[in-house]
């Protein structure tokens, strides 16, 4: 149960840290029981947070446990959950079937091989496991690791990508491949919403400068993000995909822990950028261009 609940859930990790729990009991070398015990101590303080309700709904619907999790019930619940997890029907697939899951959409980078999606499809697993297209690394031209990501994309398509024009062709190939694998949804994270238009020649120059390691201005970064997003939205619209844009998370605030644990480990927060104006122009440009996909904001 510790692996299932606390092995990678950064929402629970954040709650533990907010409750003053030492990192040793979150991502450190404490035992499974010690980590679970710290979570049991934290749960009562999550009252009125969705995590409180999710925790108890999972105990009830998966394990048939009606008790509230707290320090007094921790050992009993820990032992009962672990005993049941050894039984048939409590594997990852078994739990999906127990909850009548019909479709699971994973989060996948354009450079991902999707080899496990193919393996699952070939096995005939009754729950559909489909990829979702998450091109944040493609859009993050200003972020560390962007040039390395371009190399990963080159490796998966089997040729060099040396211009913005070639980047779009490469991403189109991956979009078509994802569609063949059953993808019907895309997801994009923006701290703020970029909107600044540019022509293909300027975009090729911006892309070339980035590959050479030259610093880009905010205007150049926004032009790149805007035009790539417009291109992607047009392809999603053509294929009938849904498009999710989630906005306003300030990422990786804790540099020490980012170096130790990497991204998405519970150190993001709400940002306070103005978004309405640029968002309106971006969505309108999609609508007036290649079409606006069904969109979730």
Range of strand content: 5-15%
* Main beta sheet strand tally, sense and closure: 3 strands, parallel
* C-alpha Rg (nearest Å): 22 Å
- Mean pLDDT metric: 96
> Helices and strands: which structural class?
mainly alpha
Strand order of the largest sheet: 3-4-7
What percentage of residues falls in helices of 4 or more residues? 40-55%
Low-confidence stretches: none
DSSP helical segment count: 14
Order of helices and strands: HHHHHHEHEHHHEHHEEHEHE
The geometry reads as: globular
Please describe the topology of this protein.
Layout: H1 2-6, H2 10-18, H3 32-42, H4 50-63, H5 74-84, H6 92-98, E1 103-108, H7 115-123, E2 128-133, H8 136-139, H9 146-157, H10 164-180, E3 185-190, H11 200-211, H12 218-239, E4 242-247, E5 249-250, H13 255-261, E6 269-270, H14 276-288, E7 294-296
Parallel strand pairs: 1-2, 3-4, 4-7
Antiparallel strand pairs: 5-6
Helix pairs in contact: 10-12
Describe it for me?
- The chain has a 3-stranded parallel beta sheet with strand order 3-4-7, covered by helices on one side. The protein has a two-stranded parallel sheet with strand order 1-2. Strands 5-6 form a two-stranded antiparallel sheet.
- The protein has helices spanning 2-6, 10-18, 32-42, 50-63, 74-84, 92-98, 115-123, 136-139, 146-157, 164-180, 200-211, 218-239, 255-261, 276-288, and strands spanning 103-108, 128-133, 185-190, 242-247, 249-250, 269-270, 294-296.
- The protein contains 14 helices and 7 strands.
- 24% of the residues are buried.
- Helix 10 (164-180) packs parallel to helix 12 (218-239).
- The mean pLDDT is 96.
- The chain is mainly alpha-helical and 297 residues long.
- The radius of gyration is 22 Å and the shape is globular.
- Helix 7 links the parallel strand 1 and strand 2.
- Helix content is 52%, strand content 10%.
């Amino acid at each position: 149960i510790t692996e299932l609940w606390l092995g990678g859930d950064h929402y629970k990790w954040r709650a533990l840290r907010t409750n003053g729990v030492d990192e040793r009991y979150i991502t450190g070398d404490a035992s499974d029981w010690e980590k679970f015990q710290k979570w049991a101590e934290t749960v009562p303080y999550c009252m009125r947070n969705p995590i409180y309700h999710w925790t108890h709904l999972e105990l009830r619907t998966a394990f048939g446990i009606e008790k509230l999790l707290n320090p007094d019930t921790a050992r009993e619940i820990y032992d009962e959950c672990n005993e049941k997890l050894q039984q048939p029907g409590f594997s990852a697939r078994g739990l999906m079937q127990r909850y009548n899951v019909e479709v699971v959409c994973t989060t996948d980078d354009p450079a991902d091989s999707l080899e496990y999606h193919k393996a699952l499809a070939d096995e005939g697993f009754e729950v559909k496991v489909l990829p979702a297209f998450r091109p944040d690394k493609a859009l993050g031209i200003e972020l560390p690791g962007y040039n390395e990501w371009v190399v990963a994309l080159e490796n998966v398509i089997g040729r060099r990508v040396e211009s913005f024009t070639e980047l779009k062709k490469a991403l189109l190939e991956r979009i078509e491949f994802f569609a063949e694998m059953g993808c019907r949804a895309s997801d994009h994270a923006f701290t703020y919403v970029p909107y600044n238009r540019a022509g293909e020649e300027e975009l090729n120059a911006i892309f070339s400068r980035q590959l050479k390691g030259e610093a880009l201005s905010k205007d150049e970064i926004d032009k790149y993000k805007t035009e790539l997003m417009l291109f992607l939205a047009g392809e999603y619209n053509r294929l009938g995909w849904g498009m999710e844009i989630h906005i306003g998370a300030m990422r990786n605030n804790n540099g020490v822990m980012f170096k130790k644990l990497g991204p998405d480990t519970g150190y993001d927060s709400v940002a306070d950028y103005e978004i309405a104006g640029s968002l309106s122009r971006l969505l309108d440009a999609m609508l007036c261009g290649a079409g606006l996909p069904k969109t979730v904001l």
